[in-house]
Design goal:
With 419 residues, the chain is of the alpha/beta class. It folds into three domains: 7-125, NAD(P)-binding Rossmann-like Domain (Rossmann fold, 3-Layer(aba) Sandwich); 133-292 and 320-324, Dihydrodipicolinate Reductase, domain 2 (2-Layer Sandwich); 335-418, Alpha-Beta Plaits (2-Layer Sandwich). It contains 15 helices and 16 strands. A hairpin with a 5-residue loop joins strand 14 (354-361) and strand 15 (367-374). Helix 7 (154-165) packs across helix 8.
Length: 419
């Protein structure tokens, strides 16, 4: 009895990842997967593959009965969604690397998979060479998954590494990242946190059954981090990383965000340098597990696409167990965060919004404070990213409401004793 099917592949896009996949497929004949056709936008461009492989007509791929897998690695989210929709409706399985498209259309993509019974796999859309989606999907029961913390954007991690290890300021590090191809000529999607939060939306689905659009998740990037912030971190024997975090609370809900964070020397994420990604998963019985690998680049991303293609030979599909077979978790805003805020003038900082302030340093040209503030205040307001203000989470930043009450009660008791 045959346990796997022969794959005829139609590929959309022949940029860095598409060409990487072409090379990888040539080196893995055992996969029994044949690349039949590649759809491209610009037929004039020189490519390292036979001319007869290419077409500009997407219907050639979508209507070919011998093509049973569509692989989509283009950078236009709307076009990608249209391609995937038609492919699934035409009875084809799909592999995608388009995190923005998946984040923006997750509910529709879930419905399409149920409606058509076809498989949509997208391991390459988050953390490239690290099989994080498959692990979250298969190995962790959502009731036992305590937390997941990750560095999911290689560009910002490269910039922060250079700021810490070579003393570059943000602009110098960004320029170097662009010169080496780790950041786009328009780097805002990376440095302002949009790329990371897009990935976090569907990782939350596989981790906790949460379906949330990017605008419903608290996030920021590294665009406001100053050399002075790095100096403070170094003085404390810490680093700054852009960390995506989801943590289960005592009430069963989940606090999730993507923000710059101080990371201690013994934190697994402190070992994640340059364009690498890292994921730390903490569960009830397995304690902490650390996944590490290249988060970008032609061949690492192509390897994740190849893994999904190989899985389709055995009719693999995401079951979305945490969403359909468990009680899905919900996001909570009823938590508090311990934060570091550096700024130029006190007038920009609403000190009355803090539950309390633990430190303040006003001598330097840039002032800073460390305090505890409500999650919802950050979600609803923008003062903490305006006027050249920099907000960075403390290590272990989440404080639950019950803890806040205990701490307030204790401080009142101490104040009474002092009187």
């Amino acid at each position: 009895m045959e346990t796997h099917k022969q794959l005829g592949i139609g590929l959309f896009g022949f940029g860095v990842v598409g060409e990487g996949l072409y090379k990888v497929l040539q080196q893995t004949p055992s996969l029994s997967a044949r690349l039949k056709k590649v759809c491209i936008r610009n037929p004039e461009k020189q490519r390292n593959a036979p001319a007869e492989l290419f077409t500009t007509d997407r219907s050639v791929l979508l209507n070919d009965p011998e093509i049973n897998v569509i692989v989509e690695v283009i950078d236009d989210a709307n076009a990608a969604f249209a391609i995937i929709t038609e492919a699934l409706k035409n009875g084809k399985d799909v592999v995608s690397a388009s995190k923005k498209m998946i984040a923006e259309h997750l509910d529709e993509l879930l419905a399409l998979q149920q409606q058509t019974g076809r498989s949509l796999l997208y391991e390459a859309a988050a953390c490239a060479s690290i099989p994080v989606i498959r692990n979250l999907e298969e190995y962790y029961d959502n009731d036992l998954l305590h937390s997941i913390r990750a560095i999911v954007n290689g560009s910002t991690n490269f910039i922060l590494t250079k700021m810490f290890e070579e003393g570059l300021d943000f602009r110098q590090a960004l320029l170097l990242a662009q010169q080496l191809g780790f950041a786009e000529s328009n780097p805002s999607l990376d440095v302002e946190g949009y790329d990371a939060v897009n990935k976090w939306t569907f990782l939350l689905t596989h981790a906790y059954g949460i379906t949330a659009s990017p605008e419903n998740i608290l996030f920021n990037g590294i665009q406001n981090i100053h050399a002075g912030d790095a100096a403070v971190a170094l003085a404390r024997h810490q680093q700054i990383k852009l960390v995506a975090q989801a943590q289960k609370l005592q009430n069963g809900q989940v606090a999730a965000f993507v923000l710059p964070q101080f990371v201690k020397q013994d934190d697994h994420l402190s070992f994640v340098k340059n364009e690498y990604n890292g994921v730390v998963i903490e569960s009830g019985f397995a304690d902490k597990q650390f996944f590490y690998g290249k988060g970008a680049g032609s061949l690492p991303t192509a390897s994740a696409v190849l893994s999904d293609i190989a899985a389709l030979r055995y009719q693999y599909k995401y079951e979305y167990k945490k969403l359909y077979h468990h009680q899905p978790h919900t996001l909570s805003e009823e938590v508090y965060l311990r934060v570091y805020v550096s700024f130029e003038d006190w007038k920009y900082i609403p000190r009355e919004k803090f539950e309390w302030i633990e430190e303040w340093h006003a001598q330097e040209e840039r002032k800073y404070l460390v305090g505890v503030i409500g999650f919802r205040e950050l979600k609803d307001q923008t003062w903490w990213k305006d006027n050249n203000t920099s907000l960075i989470l403390a290590p272990d930043p989440v404080i639950e409401t019950v803890e806040i009450r205990k701490l307030k009660k204790k401080s009142l008791e101490l104040a009474g004793l002092a009187l």
